[in-house]
Design a protein that fits this description.
The chain is an alpha/beta fold. It has one domain. The chain is about 25% helix and about 35% strand. Strands 1, 2, 3, 5, 6, 7, 9, 12, 13 and 14 form a 10-stranded mixed sheet that branches. Strands 8-4-10-11 form a 4-stranded mixed sheet, covered by helices on one side. Strand 5 and strand 6 form a beta hairpin.
Length: about 290
């Protein structure tokens, strides 16, 4: 029996729905999740396990949804080390399909800054103590501090910054999840553990980097000679987080001795393009975050 051809309304609705799903990034979001699951559970090339998706959290009275969270666990001497990858997926349109990055002078070179909390379980089984600390870890990967979109000629929107918007979103998600975890200590499993938070942006944008020294700009005109940009599969990006993006935890906080202001504001985000997703998720975590 021959099927009736779709009506105009069916065709129009299907096309509209397909376009809306694509433009809002839902397909890209779940395709990245599927790849992460395949690498972990099928090819066994990744140790990142999916623990949740579309998770609502609150930071500074602003609600956001974390696209998904991956978890890496390993046993260390005397404690369990848990790394939570807080993911934000960003599909960009052609007007903003190139993101270019350069290092900032006068920043700690090739250090990433992130937060972790330490859960100490006393041997006498009294109440568990939790402290939050900010760490700066050296890395062999280049760390960039300024990112700009290379807009298409036809784009006329002033002031729009997908990089800033997406970094803001993922950091709000990280700090909202810190609030969620620390709001009820009963969520901890009762063991001595270190839980660290790794914000990651997966994007369809093409990433470009330059090794230009911004301080070499002409003092009178501000003109700067830029060496040829090169494509990158993924990068570390250090961003000064505003207080409105921070968590609400008021307990004891510790840090190492590097610049206090850097610890107060700077946080590192991994930005990963489509060609770099598999490499990033299968790279040994100790190479990504040196301790």
């Amino acid at each position: 029996m021959n099927q009736m051809p779709p009506s105009n309304e069916e065709t129009e609705t299907s096309e509209w729905f397909e376009t809306r799903l694509r433009d809002q990034g839902h397909g890209f979001h779940f395709a990245v999740m599927r790849l992460a699951e395949t690498l972990a559970n099928v090819s066994r090339r990744s140790s990142w396990q999916l623990v949740g998706a579309e998770i609502p959290v609150v930071a500074r009275n602003a609600t956001t949804h974390i696209d998904f969270i991956l978890k890496h666990e390993e046993e260390r001497t005397g404690y369990q080390l848990i790394t939570l990858l807080i993911a934000e997926c960003k599909r960009v349109n052609n007007d903003y399909s190139r993101w270019a990055f350069v290092r900032r002078p006068y920043r700690g070179k090739n250090h990433i800054v992130f937060e972790e909390f330490v859960c100490l379980q006393p041997t006498d089984h009294t109440n568990q103590t939790i402290s939050l600390r900010t760490l700066s870890s050296p890395t062999d990967f280049e760390v960039y501090g300024l990112g700009l979109e290379i807009k298409s000629e036809k784009n006329k929107e002033p002031g729009k910054s997908p990089i800033n918007d997406t970094v803001t979103q993922v950091l709000r998600g990280v700090n909202g999840f810190i609030n969620h975890q620390l709001a009820k200590p009963s969520r901890m499993d009762g063991s001595t553990s270190v839980v660290r938070f790794l914000p990651v942006i997966f994007t369809t944008a093409n990433l470009w980097v330059s090794d230009a020294d911004l301080a070499n700009a002409d003092l009178a005109s501000g003109h700067l000679e830029i060496a040829k940009c090169q494509k990158a599969d993924w990068i570390w990006f250090n961003y000064n987080r505003s207080p409105m993006l921070s968590h609400d935890f008021c307990g004891e906080q510790t840090s190492s001795n590097r610049r206090d202001l850097e610890f107060e504001f700077s946080r590192s985000v991994a930005i990963v393009s489509v060609p770099g997703i598999e490499q990033f998720l299968t790279t040994n975590l100790d190479l990504l975050i040196a301790r």
